[in-house]
């Protein structure tokens, strides 16, 4: 993404320590106005020396192939150019960054950081502690206390070619006990947890099968009238058999309980992992208290959107988390429904293939099967003993186009018409032939809570549209993510009709990420809306692995760092391929991707693929993002060389962002290799300024991001 070059200021700035070729990194030359994506040290060194020597003498480092008045520096693809990385900082800020990174290298300080900060606050008092934090960790990682006080930081970033993603980073400092209590209480329906019911039911069936005959068993079960438990008749069909409705005591065909024996443990709360901060250092966590706190979070997110509009000239983004806007139980249940739907379609496909004595179709999401409603009707007739009326009613609600099914359920109705969840997710049961629920029953209060959550998201999306700014929905744990992604995609469909306002986030350490992205890209293509995605490696790796092992379900994560990198690169390549395809068809900008990574190799890979596929920064379809205070040697050279670059900007009062600062310290401890390089480049720039007598250097950027 190109940036204007205001050349008139350059001669005045060139005297303030522009890169010395003996001290700063390598830069490849430009060809036809764009970077040749070679990492050849000979070529890079030659171009870097020529450009920086000319600039140091007071001349222009104008990029070849660009008109006067535009500024675009040469990118050092080794990200070893200290001056490009830190010319946006004062010398004090460079010294402070070095001190902060040195402290982050201490295991003792990092492991006990929250405890030490609380002791310091008690000893020093509020005023002195706040001043100390602003001079160290807070000043380095946080932009300011509120929308007004962050403006100078945002304006300076903008002047050096970098745009912001705003995030109000206030977090509750909850104890583990309080966090667990809140999570357990807010993750279980007031009608009971199906997981608990299922454990009880299976134990009862095992015992009764051993000591009772079928008649006695049925007779005993008939005495459970009035109970809220849904128990399967063991002598009928223990997997898809009858159940007794605790409300009216009548036996019914599978309704009210899952189609598959047992529950999916990953979508049910477990006290061991109820504190979702466990083994997580790079993501903020919200714990549900009540609907009023969700309303306050809504107001905070709205203020962030307003700050983006007012302080960033509309070029920034605001980050939101859906767990801040509603009861987690609802996301858990909805996620389980989505996964059960996929199982259901796989079972329908397998049964149909068996009936036709053919090979089963490839597994995948519904949209990828290209099944027409008529074909689905035929499959259901082959596999289910159904009367015509319920089938017709079911088929009336499916979402499809000329290429076939898109969804089995009317998701647009959930977003636009506030349909009740309990009555929406009904499918024909393969065994019983009855219409059954994929979603466990919700109370009327829980239905209202879900509508409130959707309303809050809708308010934010409408605010983003009204202000013409973008909103990025963060990814969360895998037990929430199916629901988060589905809801986000539906709001994309609703609001991304003219441009990409709503972005979803995909975590590439998950094995299924590539398939999920391809499925969502296909939906965007077929329903004709703009697709926005942020690609990250992921924030919950250790927690996900530990939880899967403890609860006995398949580990959803890639087995190694290399496998995660391959997942990331494969997913990114597919996105770029589709971007190129749309561009050739006269539909540019229908897909927008953010490469949110602190990994140099991934950033280089993205740049190389852009060149290889034929996508330029000026196409405005791919951008890069890193956290404020981390990997400046990647972000700023990208922004100053014509790429769209972002910093994730946290803000909030000092005392209320201490948990955020604690996580930043822990995260930096985990990437000592990056810290080592950052410290090396900081020292290089510091010594350069001292040697040139520029210790009092004042940053004055003249880049204009688009």
UniProtKB/TrEMBL annotation:
Pathway: Amino-acid degradation; L-proline degradation into L-glutamate; L-glutamate from L-proline: step 1/2
SUPFAM superfamilies the UniProt entry points to: FAD-linked oxidoreductase (SSF51730)
Entry keyword set: FAD, Flavoprotein, Oxidoreductase, Proline metabolism
InterPro entries: FAD-linked_oxidoreductase-like (IPR029041), Proline_DH_dom (IPR002872), Proline_oxidase (IPR015659)
GO BP term, pick one: L-proline catabolic process to L-glutamate
Cofactor: FAD
EC category: oxidoreductase
Span of domain Proline dehydrogenase: 372-675
Record EC number: 1.5.5.2
Substrates-to-products reaction catalysed: L-proline + a quinone = (S)-1-pyrroline-5-carboxylate + a quinol + H(+)
Gene3D superfamilies, sorted: 3.20.20.220
Source organism, top-level taxon: Eukaryota
Family: Belongs to the proline oxidase family.
Protein name: Proline dehydrogenase
Organism: Frankliniella occidentalis (Western flower thrips)
